[in-house]
Each structure stands twice: as C-alpha cells, then as structure tokens.
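Recall the central idea of this unit: under ordinary conditions, the amino acid sequence of a chain determines the structure it adopts. In this exercise we apply that idea directly, starting from the sequence alone.
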Amino acid sequence: MKTTQDPAAVETVQTEEIPAVAPAATWLSDAEKKRLEEMFGAGAGKVKTKDEHWIHGWNEGVSFCYECCEKKVAELLAAEPGADYSRDGGWGTEGDSLEFCETCGHRLFNTPTQYCCESELDHFEQHGFDPANDDDCYSMDAVVSSSGWGPHEDLPGSDYERHVRHEYYTRLYQFGRKILESNEHN
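Accordingly, the structure predicted from this sequence is:
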C-alpha cells in the first residue's frame, strides 16, 4: 500500500501499488479495438455536427451553432446598444463535455478533454451503450479519438496521476469488452 497526495484536492489517497502493465484480462487485442472503432465510427459518421461558437463579452461557457450565436448576439446588442458582444469560436476547441447548441440543440464539434472522456465513460457505464444509436457511437468515437486506447505500461506522471490513468484505461477496456460480448450475443 502506498500513500500519495492529490495536489489538486490536497487530500491523501491510499492506493495499491500500480502495476506497470494492465491485467491481461482487461486488454483488448488490436483486432478488438479495430472492431470497436469501426462500430463507433459507423454511427458517428451519420451524426452531423456544426462548429462550436460562443459570445465574446457574455457568458463564454455557453455554446451555440453559428446561426444561433449570430441571433443571440443581435438580441443582446438590441437590448444593450453599444455593448461589446460578438460571435467567437468556429475553430477546433477542447471541451469538458460534448457540446450542443444552447438554442437549437444541434450537436457541436469539439475535442473532449480527459475529464470529458471520463464523464462519457461514467455515463455509459451507468445508463448503457446502444451500438445502434448514432449519438452513443459518436460520443464513444470522440472519446477513443481523443484519449486513445491508452498505454499499457510506463504510465507517466506522479503515483496519483498514474493511478487515475490506469483506472480510466482499465475501465475503458472493460467497457469495450462488454460491448463486444453483448454484440456477440445479439
């Protein structure tokens, strides 16, 4: 047992020694990864996204598609003439969540951060994954495209960071295996 400290939370975390290599039972072969990527990609390819925009000078944490952002800027300027509001964005961004337009609900493109990848995995572990649902496939495609399948060995960082990454990739592999097994039975 090793005691480590999470510098962000400033709390002590008890962890088992972290193996350099994930347990073999959780590994996915290259062929299994490819099958999952093809499954995710097939559904993801059917989902249309728009670039993510936000409003400079207003709540920049709220995301819009281009058209809705332009309308919202016009509304804000009509209510506050001379204010410094303008449409921003339209280029690749990272996000702590997979975004949708605040107004019309259209899916917006961004690259998920590690936090987002973990949150998406949490969601599917709790609520299930439907390989026939294009939105589910889009989300998992974004996760795997962003975080990859992860390292099996030589996880860099502090003991705490290694523990967190090891746990995430172990969960991702277990989740991938569960999807493959459920598809074999269908």
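Strands lie at 2-6, 11-15, 50-51, 53-56, 86-89, 94-95, 108-109, 111-112.
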